[in-house]
Amino acid sequence: MRASGVLAAEIDVTVPFFDVDSMDVVWHGHYVKYLEIARCALLDDLGHNYRRMKETGYVWPIIDLQLRYARAARFGQTLRVRAELVEWQNRLKIHYTLSDASSGERLTRASTIQVAVSLVDGEMQLVSPTVFTDDVDRRLAHRSQDRSAGSTP
């Protein structure tokens, strides 16, 4: 069973002409771009985007990517891409769902795993840096406060 994320971000993408093949179907490699857009929205929401990662002395390369295609996306279709934070203590694991924005029909599921690598010595970190986990904890606490106050984040 697929784990639910503790935080999520959603974006909409309308499939452009240059992402499709002669059959108006999205070329499989372009799905990775859609994941990246959603991942950036999630990281922005966490307050720990790629700029902040670099400023804190770490890069976070993707070491694993999995995609499962259920239905093809097509030219002009608006996709809803949801990114959910699943793990962050030892690695950054995000689950994704790509759905048709109108019908909600699921088209694709995916996941990525990223690990912190020190910019100083190029060493992979076995646990996530506290500067990252502190930002996640801060966002989770803020979300809890929002819920307690009756607002939706």
Automatic annotation (TrEMBL):
Q: Which residues form a coiled coil?
A: none
Question: SUPFAM superfamilies from the xrefs?
Answer: Thioesterase/thiol ester dehydrase-isomerase
Could you confirm whether the keyword Hydrolase appears in this record?
yes
Example of a GO MF term: hydrolase activity
Give the matching Pfam families.
4HBT_2
What are the protein's UniProt keywords?
Answer: Hydrolase
Reported EC number(s) for this entry are 3.1.2.-
Homology family: Belongs to the 4-hydroxybenzoyl-CoA thioesterase family.
Name used for this protein in its record: Acyl-CoA thioester hydrolase
Native species: Luteibacter jiangsuensis
